[in-house]
Write a structure and sequence with these properties.
The chain is mostly helical and 89 residues long. Helices cover 62% and strands 7% of the residues. The protein has one domain.
């Protein structure tokens, strides 16, 4: 994929996610079972919450720690926790 194609590809994926989530009911979130990483079956709603709320946060921090350990002096705590550059001193 060329860089200029990326925004349209993301828009396409967002449309698919909107369609998927738009088709789910509150009952689906409780009754449909799914597998979660490192665990057994869980209700779909819990699985959706845990994915970004738990595991993606951990992966983001791991990537930050690798970049910091590799000697990147331009990133700090604000980058890790808030996703923003630190305030100038």
């Amino acid at each position: 994929m060329e860089a200029e194609q990326f925004p349209n590809a993301m828009d396409h994926q967002i449309g698919g996610l909107r369609d998927l989530f738009g088709s789910l009911t509150d009952e689906d979130m409780v009754t449909i079972k799914t597998k979660v990483p490192g665990g057994g079956p869980a209700p779909l709603g819990l699985g959706i919450f845990l994915g970004p709320g738990k595991w993606l946060t951990g992966y983001r921090m791991q990537l930050f720690l690798y970049a910091k350990a590799a000697g990147n002096p331009d990133i700090g705590t604000a980058n890790c926790w808030a996703g923003v550059d630190p305030r100038p001193k």
